[in-house]
Amino acid sequence: MSQNSIPDFFVYGEPVRPLDIGFLHVETVLARANIHLGQVAAHKHPQMGQITYWTSGSGTYRIEDKSWDFSAPAVSFVPSTIVHGFSIGPGTDATVVSVADDALAAIAANSLLPLDRPVFADGQPDRAAWKRLAALLEMIAAEYAEAQAGNDKTLPALIAVALSHIARLAPATVGAAPSSDASLAMGLRRLVDAHFRDNWPVDRYVETLATTPHLLDKASRAVLGSGVKRVVSERRLLEAKRLLRFTVRTVEDIAYEIGFDDPAYFSRFFRERTGEAPAAWRRRQLRGV
Higher confidence at residue 177 or residue 60? Predict the structure, then answer.
């Protein structure tokens, strides 16, 4: 695998391919043990989000530049395009539920968990909430494996309930917003992912989403936590961190990659937001400090 890019996968180890409408996939981490050998390198899924529910063992789970040492039970939800990976010990296993973005968009109205941001939670196995989540994931896995008639209706419903239980286990991540705001903000997020390198002005996002500056800013602040300009800046910063941490590309090359014409201006942009120059941030991350 080239160190100049963060790989996109369908499921881990398999190249991206077009997804059927409403695509769902369920498997265990141990099912791919011969591929990852307990070390899943940083990667992302451009078309689907994932629930990972750890049923046994322990390890370290990483989402972007954050990491958690965990022992089962633990659970994460990672939206599409979010970089993640993990290291686990022998015998550690999880159920992984992968859901296409279009299916998640339909599920979102019935979920307490905002589906535009990642979340990780762990806790005590004797808590009733964890037992209920375990039972839900067992039902999801069974419905998927048995492929009975009507599971195109039962699986999304079970996944919505599972996501809501994850929200209750990690209440700090819950930020309920009106469905119209959520829909508009998710549309903005998709456009920003596609065009943050292109230096679109705010008016271009407004026009493309067929809304008004006030409504878009309101939705962005309610769901994503900041205004449109800040969302774009944070997305560029996120891509810069990804490329600095997970590739060997030069700072100058990364600056051009994320839409800066002037590497010096990129360095000022990065320092203002992190307190460090890009090269210093990279060295610290590689040392694990």
Answer: 60
